[in-house]
Prior knowledge:
Elements lengths: L5 E5 L5 H10 L3 E5 L3 H11 L2 E2 L3 H5 L4 E4 L4 H10 L13 E4 L5 H12 L4 E4 L2 E2 L1 H7 L2 E6 L3 H14 E8 L3 H30 L3 H8 L7 H11 L10 H17 L5 H17 L8 H5 L3
Parallel strand pairs: 1-2, 1-4, 2-3, 4-5, 5-6, 8-9
Antiparallel strand pairs: 7-8
Helix pairs in contact: 1-6, 8-10, 8-11, 8-12, 9-10, 11-12
Amino acid sequence: xxxxxxxxxxxxxxxxxxxxxxxxxxxxxxxxxxxxxxxxxxxxxxxxxxxxxxxxxxxxxxxxxxxxxxxxxxxxxxxxxxxxxxxxxxxxxxxxxxxxxxxxxxxxxxxxxxxxxxxxxxxxxxxxxxxxxxxxxxxxxxxxxxxxxxxxxxxxxxxxxxxxxxxxxxxxxxxxxxxxxxxxxxxxxxxxxxxxxxxxxxxxxxxxxxxxxxxxxxxxxxxxxxxxxxxxxxxxxxxxxxxxxxxxxxxxxxxxxxxxxxxxxxxxxxxxxxxxxxxxxxxxxxxxxxxxxxx
Length: 295
């Protein structure tokens, strides 16, 4: 980034705000934009940043733009379509870093479009959730057309995360994020079904989870989500069910697009789509088994 300190940040949700806080702490000059302009103004005042209502103001002087938005479709809309699109106002040489969970094939297409205007794209989704964003210990999976492009973003990544994985070409970061979340969702699904079957048989759920966690069935979900959230009934992981269902859909759709026979991914996608329909997209993802346990 040639030691640039001028960063624009779009998307100030549960993940966006703590990321902005860490960038401000690291000394970056920040411009903020959100669909909720009042929130952007409040956070700008809180972190010594500048809130921008227009793409012209956001782009002026910004050498790196971070998007942290719900879907790849929204990222594309922001850059290319909404009110003429931010891209029309970016100067050649600007770097766009999409840290959302977007579709990998869509990221490749978007990157090609941006490159025609002299703007490079890095797809750099994160793992670690809100706790990792707060602590600045996120794991970042970064893909780009060339490794040197990622080098430019390293000062920003170092302010936000603990580990940066260079996953390969453009779209590879988003592919890795979706595939990781698919594996996590599959582990949750299997654990939930085991608990539901066991309870129907007469086993105690807490005892089951304790045994799984010192046996071969253990996983992040059994150790953290089930032991810490599901069994005590707190259901507060901070990650929305709809977002996990979306990521499973991205991973499954990628397999289908690449003609990979992956029947488990399709079954997991169906289960999480069912949970989203029953419980709603904004429900905490740890509640999914309450949808599957209904008769």
